Amino acid sequence: MRKFLQKILRSPVRRIADRYSSRPDKQRVHTALDDLFIKINDTGKRGVCIPFETHRQKFIILSDHHKGAKNGADDFAIAEKNYLEALQYYNNNSYFYIALGDCEELWENTLAAVKKSNVPSFDNEKLFLQRKAFIKIFGNHDLDWDNSPFAAIELKEIYGQEVIIYEGVILKTWVNDQPLDVYLTHGHQGDAVSDGNWFSKWFIANIWAPLQAYLNINPNTPAYEDHLKTDHNRIMYEWIAGKKNMLLITGHTHQPVFESLTHIEALYRKLSIAKEAKDTVTIEKIEQEILKKKLAGQTIPDFTAYKSSYFNSGCCCFDDGDITGIEIADGKIRLIKWEYNATGSSGRIVLEETELQNLIVI
Q1: Are 59 and 311 spatial neighbours (Cβ–Cβ below 8 Å)?
Q2: Is residue 304 part of a domain?
Q3: Do 243 and 97 share a structural domain?
Q4: Looking at the DSSP assignment, which residues form a beta bridge with residue 257?
Q5: pLDDT digit string (tens) for 32-43?
Q6: Taking all residues of the chain, what is their mean pLDDT, rounded to a whole number?
């Protein structure tokens, strides 16, 4: 019976999750991003500013793990091995780890269950903390880290030392003699479904989690799924598009975005550029690549006009076990993916990359 229900309900469940997982209000999102940036940059409240040199320090940004209780509702379980391999790689290579929110799934589970079921992950995160190379930012599904009176005690028990929880971080550097701010926050602020909504939390805990556990359906489709930006990603892009020499990196939507574009959007931009140059070889190659992915019946925007200032780390709980993240290292910014190969081993793949100097407006 369960297999039958999985078969007939998988697609409807994913459509419902896509439709109701986010209800962003543009004005609320923009106001929240403005207010938080000011609090961090001007007063040091709610976050911290970190100066860095582009060719010396290295950062890895991972979000939306949703570590659960190793049951049928635990979206992180299948990706855990990839995550542990990634952490070992980044720690061995002296990266600074920014955990960008929704790291623990505390809407569906008790903290005790999450702590008990994710000891290897917490132990590997400790290694960054011991190097003073770890920052933990809260999201909507782990909001308890920000508002629970027992959060500090619980975090010290998990990590063996004090952990300060932030709402955002600003990385500050200079590129081509120009200042560059990299603004990071989870991105749930201004989302009516997620931003302090008690009904959403109740529904997830009491209706969605038991149903998902029974059906064992993960609504997070693979990392390189071919869709246009979600409304929430589009609204966040519209906020950062008006800023100079600033990048915005968020999570929350589980949709990887690089230089303000999803994978399919980047292909359409490359196609437009190739057509402008009358490069028939490149046109044919790109058209073949997007033929099976084309968005029928939709008007495709002019992606060549987009500023390359918005990035989204994706998530660490895709249903094929992939995890995605953003690296800032070696003077570059990269969208990376960790995936299982044919033998079940984990491997790192660079999906997109560009020099930071390409993102500076002169």
Answers
A1: no
A2: no
A3: yes
A4: 312
A5: 999 999 999 998
A6: 87
